[in-house]
Design brief:
single chain; alpha/beta; Rossmann fold; 9-stranded mixed beta sheet; 6-stranded mixed beta sheet; FAD-dep_OxRdtase; EC 1.4.3.3; flavoprotein; DAO
Length: 327
């Protein structure tokens, strides 16, 4: 490919925008097309924190999707980049202290510990009733701000974002010599990939009563405790309903999230509810990051990241660029 390749990125979530920024800042002519603005994508609903190579979402990903060398590399790239962005004005990224907890007893392996910055195993009275808990320092990302930040970087590098409907990979390939498919859960229809399944997640947003540290549960199952503060609001959750495509808030889930959150932090009892948000994570047995020819176009697929698309985004974007530039 030439240094100024025309690239069409399909999808305005975290994977699409990060891939677009990475490519545009390397000199490619990038256009992002999505059927909804970034502010309405699943990514904006994320809590969102990211950390080491073992920090995958077991409620979203298939059991056989274990962190391997590729996952470790992608996560390390994401951790490095997001840590740098904690110093960038207007990025929406900060380094936050908090606890990762699990209802499944276990031990932290050397691989986990090496990939979790500021790791400290919690003593019993710090575990909030969980058999496994440890403190870490991780990038905490306000996705409302961060997605706008990425769009700003994309435009500064000469790229653009458009709203539009593309029905399929073939439809996109007919419009550009290079296509990057970042359609998330919608890759099931867009790419005809029947291994993709939606994992519905619901969060409740409340006014912040003074919470600074996050709590994030990584237990297996359809519901996990999530308490992530962002300035004047706190994101509470979450659910992980496999195969559920509804974007309508569920009142019973809202009540459960509020009740469980208040049990874990009494300051949340009676907190003002600001909203309820629902998004669809892209579940898949493995991440799909590979290239194929569709007609005369090169199509690079980048989807199926489950609940860890933010953490994988920069590492996957680098691999997307490598596939394009060596083709």
């Amino acid at each position: 490919m030439t240094d100024k390749t025309q690239v069409l990125v399909v999808g305005s979530g975290i994977s699409g925008l990060t891939s677009a920024v990475y490519l545009a800042e390397r000199g490619h002519a990038v256009t992002v097309v999505a059927r909804e603005p970034a502010a309405e994508s699943t990514s904006v609903v994320a809590a969102a924190i990211t950390g080491g190579p073992a920090f995958a979402d077991p409620a979203v990903l298939e059991d056989e999707w274990a962190p391997g060398d590729l996952m470790v590399r992608w996560h390390r790239a994401g951790l490095t980049e997001l840590t740098k962005l904690a110093d960038a004005p207007g990025s929406g990224v900060r380094l936050g202290r908090g606890r990762l907890v699990s209802s499944q007893p276990g031990t932290v392996t050397p691989e986990w510990e090496a990939g979790l910055p500021g790791y400290r195993l919690c003593v019993e009275d710090e575990r909030a009733g969980f058999p496994l808990a440890f403190e870490v320092t991780m990038p905490v990302v306000d996705m409302r701000i961060y997605l706008d930040y990425l769009i700003g970087r994309l435009r500064a590098a000469g790229g653009s974002v458009e709203t539009g409907e593309l029905a399929s990979v073939a439809d996109a390939a007919a419009q550009s010599p290079v296509v990057v498919n970042c359609t998330g859960a919608h890759a099931r229809t867009f790419a005809g990939d029947e291994s993709v399944f939606a994992v519905r997640g619901q969060h409740v947003i409340v006014a912040n009563p003074g919470i600074e540290d996050f709590l994030f549960e990584f237990s297996k199952g359809p519901r996990q405790a999530v308490i992530v503060p962002h300035a004047d609001r706190v994101v509470l959750g979450t659910t992980a309903d496999k195969g559920e495509w509804s974007l309508e808030p569920d009142e019973e889930q809202t009540e459960h999230i509020l009740r469980r959150s208040a049990e874990l932090d009494k300051r949340l009892a009676g907190a003002e509810v600001l909203g309820v948000e629902v998004g669809l994570r892209a579940g898949r047995p493995t991440v799909r990051l590979e290239a194929e020819k569709v007609g005369d176009a090169l199509v690079v697929h980048n989807y199926g990241h489950g609940g860890v698309a933010l953490g994988l985004s920069w590492g996957c974007a680098a691999d997307v660029a490598a596939l394009i530039e060596r083709s």
